[in-house]
Prior knowledge:
By secondary structure, this protein is mostly helical.
Amino acid sequence: MPHWLYWAGLLLFPALAIYLVRRQRRSAQARGPSLFIAYLFLLCAGFLGIHRFYVRSRWGFVFIPVFLALIYCNAQVRDVRDDESRTFAARQQAQSAVERARADKSGSAEAAQELQKDEAAIKASEQEYEVAKAVRDRWKNGAAAVAAVLAVMLLADAILLPGLVRRRAAVERANPDAEVAHVEAPDVPQAGTREDPTLKIHTRLTDLIESLNVHVGEYVAYWAVLAVFVYYYEVIARFVFNSPTNWVHESMFLMFGMQYMLCGAYAYREDQHVRVDVIYAKFSTRGKALADIITSLFFFIFIGTLFWTSLRFAMDAVSVGEHSFTEWGIQYWPVKLAMPIGAALLLLQGLSKLIKDVLILRTGGATRGS
């Protein structure tokens, strides 16, 4: 994968996902298929025509034989590849035998017969290799042709999909009594301790800080969805198209490392970090605020150290344009730059919490408007 495409995907995919989700929420009461879900089906299982079945189009059945033909061609390529490897090794052995026979300067009749025999063997092995290679190339070209047809079909449907969704939605709106399965989003309970008394406190400054962290956290959260697509692509590329990647594993663990740093402040704001609250949970609101103010000293020492050391760490990587030593060779400096950025966001969120804890002590825990 080109490096620019990787970084562009990390930047643009969350923005696109947020747009589609908000668009779907605005039309949550609208009857009919979702364009967002339709594109998800196109990306994840479009080669089987699942996106067409989602919009009730029988053209989805056209994708199935094309995909099966691709699997068959690739299976033949794998089978013939073994014959090609075997005949190639036999040819190499025959060439070595001929070279040894030619190096024999004895001039005996036996040496001449051995040379003649080895030359005949090398011609036979070369013929077998060429036949195996021709068969492999024929199936490989067939697989490439079928893959090209499938790619054109998917590209065409990527363009046609909005219209297909609109037409299907119009049909369902025109037939409100028709049985159409609509799956409601599950009610997911909030995780975390939810013991933080500052969750209900609001000021103009703290709301500004928390709005920044919420937007950053929600933005990088969509990287987890991107990982599903990427690993799905790796499985299909490896086992269907015989084209394993050399970038999926490295790209994903780097992405999750950046996500871990950048969403820490959002998790802190939502009180989702693990804490030992056996005693803390029994405190009053003011007692919890006082405990948080006292322990915030250790928080700011840790986060300040993390910010300073990671900033120096990242600047060193930026100055030399550091990149990985793997075959992919991705740039490391943006990954390391996420560390001081994440620490800075955590520092701001800690400041927001400290302000609200002080307000709780002053006001007794009353909620303040922004």
